[in-house]
Amino acid sequence: MKSDVEELMPRLLPVEFGASGEELDLKGPPRNPREYLRQVQLEASQCPEVVVAQIDPKKLKKKQTINASVAGCHAAPVGFCPSLSWQQHQVSNFSDVRQSIAKNRNHWSSNTLDDNVEMPDITDEEGWKKFCFGETLYLGTSSSRTEAAEAEPALDYSKVGFPPFLTIVSRLNQSTVLMVLETLVGWFEENDFAPQLGRWLYALLACLEKPLLPEAHSCIRQLARRCAQLRSALESEEHEKLPALNLLVCLVARYFEQSDLADQPE
Fold first, then answer.
1. What is the pLDDT of residues 59-77, one digit of tens each?
2. CA torsion, points 26, 30, 32, 37, in degrees to nearest 10?
3. What is the SS3 assignment for 199?
4. How far apart are CA 117 and CA 64, in angstroms?
5. 182: number of CA atoms within 13 Å, CB side?
6. Is there a contact between 38 and 23 (Cβ–Cβ < 8 Å)?
7. DSSP label of 259
8. Closest to 137 measured CA to CA, from 220, 81, 194
9. Cα–Cα distance, 234 to 128 (Å, whole number)
10. Could you tell me the pTM of the whole model?
């Protein structure tokens, strides 16, 4: 008796499937094309019509939904926009840095880390914030204390955060690079710009491989928009944060080819 599927759709490769097919050995290799097709038919007839996948919700990763915004950046206030030659120079320097990291990754990653360097687990978002920013910034202590701590001869990296040393970032695979980048950008959405943040964002962008994954595409656009938002609120062209904010917008727009976010010089 024909199945419902066979009633609706004729076989593209009709093969005799008589009583001899019942004796067909599915475990043995087919001896000729006809026997192969008969094996396929017999296997298909033994499959259930409906199959339900058994999925463990605990194994599903967080943040699977990707919201890629196409909104542009806040336009730079008059006098705040960098020149095109400055942007091109920064992109050239950034490209050189990326090539150097790629070329020497094996060398740096093989170097032994200091005893005080304990890199967080890939899923430990709070641990990465504390690792990159240090307790001073992570806990929201005043910036004056952060600057004073950085001036001390013997730095306590647990207080001021670990800089993105090459021995550290060279050990990060692409999954970790993207996870840490998303974590820091998420923190940046709710906090002001800080030097520790800028150093890590630059280093992670330098390690981010092209072509971009959809998650990375959305993340760096979010970063550029946040930088442009803060830049538009600055009161002076001489503000100390302006060069760093311009640089991050430039790299996202010019190097990673998000041209709709690019600053257009006057």
1. 666 556 655 555 667 888 8
2. 40
3. helix
4. 31
5. 22
6. no
7. G
8. 194
9. 29
10. 0.69
